[in-house]
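Letters spell out the chain; backbone shape is given numerically. Take this protein:
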Amino acid sequence: MTRTECASRRKGEVLMGFITFLCVLSLGCGSTTKSDNTVAPSQEASAPDPITVTAESTHLFFRYLSEDKTRVQTTQAIDSIPKQSRSEVVVLVPDNPTPPGWEFVADLNQPLPLTIQARQGFNLTTHPRAKVAQASPPSGTSPKGKALQRSPTGAPNAPPVQEASNKTVVMFSSPGCPYCDKARNYFEKSNVSFSEYDLERDSRRARRKLSQLAQSAGVNPQTLSGVPIIFVGKHIVRGYDRRRLSQLLGI
């Protein structure tokens, strides 16, 4: 082999080595790019912004446990929530629901306005109704000699709401209110005549009537919020409270 042929062969070997090096480098860069394009796992939903509850908040719904903690109930009127049930109330914002796993939980025993932070993983937990053995005949008697009515636990029942002398019924409502629908159905099925005023569609006329009835009942109309607001004579029922309505109407 001549000197010229040896030089050409060496150049070819060097060139092949360089091409091999470029191929290895290219493969290495390709694997790095693939690694960089890996999608990170999705993050959990972050906490929603705080909300504020005021006495004038009519767009909110409030979910709470009944006094015996056996049922979850919903209302738009804070005043209809029993005081024993106000320490943990879930506040619902229909126009802006919370992300999954988050709830606005308020202590409505605190004065309003109240700013509420969202809590994660909160649930209203009900308890099964306890089975109570039948109570023995009561031994106590009233001053007139009649046996006292007692609950299944043996304690005297609280006196019922006194029947209203004036049974004129006026209800203030708004469109899309489920508790207004329940009250309306209750009156119709019980054959109770009532007048209804829409606080949204006929606001001026309804507000004027509400102010008139509230002043007659000795109540500041500015303190009345939410729907339904029901007057039975001078008695005011906030929200749909079938038991109290039945007592006032003598049904």
